[in-house]
Design a protein that fits this description.
Blueprint (H helix, E strand, L loop, with lengths): L12 H19 L7 H18 L10 H9 L13 E6 L5 E4 L2 E4 L8 E6 L3 E6 L2 E7 L7 E2 L6 H4 L5 H4 L8 H10 L5 H9 L2 H4 L1 H13 L9 H12 L23 H17 L1
Parallel strand pairs: 3-7
Antiparallel strand pairs: 1-4, 2-3, 4-5, 5-6
Helix pairs in contact: 6-7, 9-10
Length: 283
């Protein structure tokens, strides 16, 4: 929230900090009297309320103007922000054997191959990111409560090749997309359906989630008479989706010199020749 002019001398730093402290207290006392469904809802209200206060609070030096009006006067003198400030709390953490990492009293999943390794966690106001080496390996929405676990089911797909039964009661797979949920319900009614479902999910890392969801929807829509969907059905649909489109207009320089005739009597000629050949063979 804008307060007074920028600090020009060392002794002014305390004044700016006091103004910020008063502004925070003014906003948070009001916020504490309300109930919030999520951090996103709270942050949206905070942004709106701060801008409303800019219009109400008078500038400490130029009392004829509000803080918002002084901001508009000074905006022409402000330097452009080249990039948004990437502010987060960075900590090191070890990944558990169940592919989870603890961040701010909650747990978040990471890819299976990182189990037992040290990673860097980046805690943002609304996101939690996990970094291994120089790449982001997990990106979750931050949980607002404590003692909860946030899964990304794609982190556990490799485990299904050895333990396909985890699809039945495994917590990471409770939030599968709707198309995959319907396919799982259909397959798990059959013997060996969990293994088929594991094979379908194994396609996601290479083909992409969106493509697999479309393929599963089409496979369910055009299920065979037996009603059983196989991984070959999904592969077949993906192949058709990724196939190059056939040309609609083919231009050629070839010309037909003799137009074809509709002569069904030619079939009798072929049949007579076949009968003669059979008689020769019999003789």
């Amino acid at each position: 929230m804008p307060t007074s002019a920028c600090v020009a001398s060392g002794w002014e730093k305390g004044i700016v900090e006091k103004n910020v402290q008063d502004s925070r207290r003014r906003v948070w006392v009001e916020a504490s009297k309300r109930r919030w469904g999520s951090l996103v809802e709270l942050n949206a209200w905070l942004g709106t309320r701060c801008r409303e206060l800019w219009l109400e609070i008078r500038h400490p030096e130029h009392r004829a103007f509000s803080v918002a009006e002084m901001l508009e006067h000074e905006r022409a003198q402000l330097l452009p922000m080249t990039a948004a400030f990437d502010g987060y709390v960075d900590k090191q953490a070890r990944v558990s054997s169940t592919c989870l990492v603890a961040v701010a009293r909650n747990r978040y999943s990471v890819p299976r191959e990182l189990a037992g390794q040290m990673v860097a966690t980046q805690l943002y106001p609304a996101r939690v990111k996990v970094v291994a080496g120089d790449r982001i390996v997990a990106d979750h929405e931050r949980l607002g409560d404590e003692g909860r676990t946030q899964y990304d089911w794609q982190h556990y797909v490799p485990l299904l090749q050895r333990k396909p039964g985890a699809l039945r009661n495994g917590a990471p797979f409770a939030d599968l997309p709707e198309s995959l949920q319907r396919l799982r319900q259909a397959l798990l009614r059959e013997d060996g359906g969990d293994r088929v479902m594991a094979q379908v999910l194994a396609i996601v890392p290479t083909a992409g989630l969106e493509a697999v969801l479309v393929a599963v929807d089409l496979a369910l829509e055009h299920a065979p008479p037996s009603g059983r969907i196989s991984v070959e059905h999904v592969h077949n649909v993906l192949a058709r989706l990724n196939a190059a489109p056939r040309p609609s207009n083919v231009v050629t320089s070839l010309q037909v010199s003799t137009p074809p005739l509709d002569d069904t009597a030619r079939y009798d000629t072929l049949r007579q020749g076949l009968d003669s050949a059979q008689e020769v063979g019999h003789a």
